[in-house]
Amino acid sequence: MSTEANLRHRLTKKLKISVGNSRHSTGGIKKSPRRLDDDTSLKRGNGGKLNSKRSKVDVSSNFDRRKKTSYADQVIHEGILLHENAKSLSRKNLSSKKQNQVKFDGSGGSISDKSVRSMWVSNRLRKATSEIKRSSHRITDALESVEVSDGKGRTKANKVNKIAGFDSASLKKDTRIKSNSDKTLNQSQSNCAEVQPSPSVMRKARDKRGFADDDKEDLDVQPKKSKRVIRIDPNDISNKRLDDGILMNEGLKDKKRDSEKNAEMSKNAQFRAIKPSPSIQSFVEDNLLGRRRLIELRRAGYNVELSAPLDNIPFSTSSERERIEENIFRNKLTFFAAAKVSSSFPPLDLPEIAFAGRSNVGKSSLLNSLTRQWGVVRTSDKPGLTQSINFFNLGSKLCLVDLPGYGFAYAKEEVKDAWEELVKEYVSTRVGLKRVCLLIDTKWGMKPRDHELVDLMERSQTKYQIMLTKTDMVFPMDVARRAMQIEETLKANKSAVQPVMMVSSKSGAGIQCLRTVLGKIARFAKL
Ligand SMILES: Nc1nc2c(ncn2[C@@H]2O[C@H](COP(=O)(O)OP(=O)(O)OP(=O)(O)O)[C@@H](O)[C@H]2O)c(=O)[nH]1
Ligand SMILES: [Mg+2]
After folding, report:
1. Which of 127, 234, 241, 385 has the smallest number of CB atoms closer than 10 Å to its CB?
2. Which of 1-5, 157-161, 324-328, 501-505 tops mean pLDDT?
């Protein structure tokens, strides 16, 4: 019994301590919720053995079993009350850790089913309220994220950071961004007027956005690409010189072109300004020189179906048509020698009349026209056909010499140079040469090479006379102007024989006059 009594005493002591603690904790719950935890932990630690222990304590304090059990019930009831108080406190504090502990207590306790159920209900209610709060926070976050994900997202994210206590100095950099952010703030405040985001919510929202917003912020932070400004160094004159040089060259070229154009224009203007002498004009009109209409030639009595119709007598019969007034040119034209070098020149038997001029000017054609013997001298529309000095006897009185042309020709430069040298040698050294007929295309006038030959003949005192060819290709007035121009040009030349002759091998205009001039030479020429 003594051991039993000792046991009872110890148990009673322990029970009193525990009850005292619990009563003491009832008063101190408000101050320290840990007491409640201690109390609950005591229950948790003892589990379902608490009732039996307490009933034993009641026996040891000399109460009957009923009283003991009622006391135990009372103790339990006090514990439940204690729990109720703790629940109310926990509701007020809304501490999540405490809530979890209380929930655990309700689930693990061996307290009566009703009290456990009531605890479960209250815990569920608490859980539901916390869930509602969480969901409201989520909605707030969602609203914020929706705002962030729209077009002005960057600015809005910055604004949220501003609310969360971030440095807003960067937002003041751009006034436009600031105004946009103010608008966004107003919108967000109007949308979420009831929900004021707490710092923790803002932290969560920031965490949710994660790196995306950080990137956006980085993008905001990144400086905008400024336009590349090309600075020109005023001291660096390398480019300037180059440009200036190009411009100068271009300017010089333009000036040269303009001057050439002006010179050309002035040449044309000068040519148009030439007033031919009345004698030249009357000669042109009398011989129907220049471009003429066929109807005009018919009215003048010429048969246009014949070759060189203007070389015939107007209104002449077929017998009269073949008549050449100059006897010399009635003789047969005979080729007798060709020379490509000066050593090949034939011996001088007859007075010679040579026909010189640029290639394709009509030298060979004029020979045929003068003698009316078509085909004796070969002609071609290809410049450079005559490549040697060809000698033709006209009867026993006169020698006609066809010279190769100079200037443009389908031949090698060396060959052309050789021709030119040969021609120059012939006209300057040939003793029996009585007259050089220098043929000039009426359309183009005298060219530098023609002037070279003129100068050579002047030096060698070789008599020369200008023959304007292809007069049928230009207007009569231009024929007269060209003749006048050349006469004026060669007026001072001593070896130049006036007047300038004007002919057309095609139309026959001026051919008869040329025969008369050349016949006189033949008649009075002496070797
Ligand atoms: N319209 C017209 N054409 C002519 C006249 N004289 C010659 N021709 C043409 O001009 C071209 C050249 O004639 P040519 O007599 O071969 O000239 P060239 O001076 O002898 O030429 P080269 O022998 O190469 O020096 C030929 O097609 C002739 O038909 C003319 O008075 N009027
Ligand atoms: Mg020829």
Report:
1. 234
2. 501-505
Question: What's the CA gap between 300 and 297, in Å, rounded?
Answer: 5
- Quick check: is 172 in a domain? no
Could you read off the pLDDT of 383-395 as tens digits, one per residue? 878 889 999 999 8
Please state the φ and ψ torsions of residue 64, each to the nearest 5 degrees. Answer: -75, 175
Output the residue whose Cα is nearest ligand 1's atom 30. 470
Cβ–Cβ under 8 Å, residues 156 and 188: yes
Q: What is the pLDDT of residues 60-81, one digit of tens each?
A: 444 445 444 444 445 444 444 4
Distance 309 CA to ligand 1 centre (A): 17
To test the pocket of ligand 1, the residue of 408, 505, 514 to mutate (highest count of ligand atoms within 8 Å of its CB) is 505
- 58 within 8 A of 71, measured Cβ to Cβ: yes
26: in domain: no
ipTM, two decimals: 0.99
Indicate which atom in ligand 1 lies nearest the CA of residue 402.
Answer: 20
- 501: helix, coil or strand? strand
* Residue 474, CA distances (Å) to 1, 272, 289, 468, 490 in order: 167, 13, 9, 11, 22
361 lines ligand 1 (CB under 6 A): yes
pLDDT score, position 94: 46
pTM above 0.80, yes or no: no
Which ligand is nearest the CA of 368, by number? 1
User: What pLDDT shows up at residue 153?
Assistant: 40
In 15-56, beta strands by DSSP E: none
Instruction: Look at strands 464-469 and 398-402 and give their pairing.
Output: unpaired
Q: Is 507 in the pocket of ligand 1 (CB under 6 A)?
A: no
Asked whether 365 lines ligand 1 (CB < 6 A), one says: yes
From 520, 485, 523, 522, select the one nearest 502 (Cα to Cα).
485
How far is ligand 1, taken at its centre, from the CA of residue 382, in Å? 9
Q: Are 172 and 178 in contact (CB under 8 A)?
A: yes
Nearest to 398 by CA among 330, 499, 495, 323: 330
Give domain status of residue 514, yes or no: yes
Distance 360 CA to ligand 1 centre (A): 5
Q: Which long-range contacts (CB under 8 A, 24 or more apart) does 31-39 make?
A: 33/86, 33/89, 33/90, 33/93, 33/95, 33/98, 36/82, 36/83, 36/86, 36/89, 37/98, 37/101, 39/79, 39/82
Task: Classify residue 46: in a domain, yes or no.
Answer: no
Asked if 338 and 391 count as a contact pair (C-beta separation under 8 A), the reply is: yes
The rounded mean pLDDT for the chain is 71
Number of domains in the chain: 1
Residue 510 Cβ contacting ligand 1 at under 6 Å: no
CATH code assigned at 488? 3.40.50.300
Helix 50-60 to helix 65-93 angle (10° resolution) is 130
Average pLDDT for residues 158-174, to the nearest whole number?
43
In the numeric block, which tokens belong to residue 385? 């056909």
State if residue 472 touches ligand 1 by the CB under 6 angstroms criterion. yes
pLDDT digit string, tens, across residues 329-371? 989 999 999 999 989 999 988 999 999 999 999 999 999 999 9
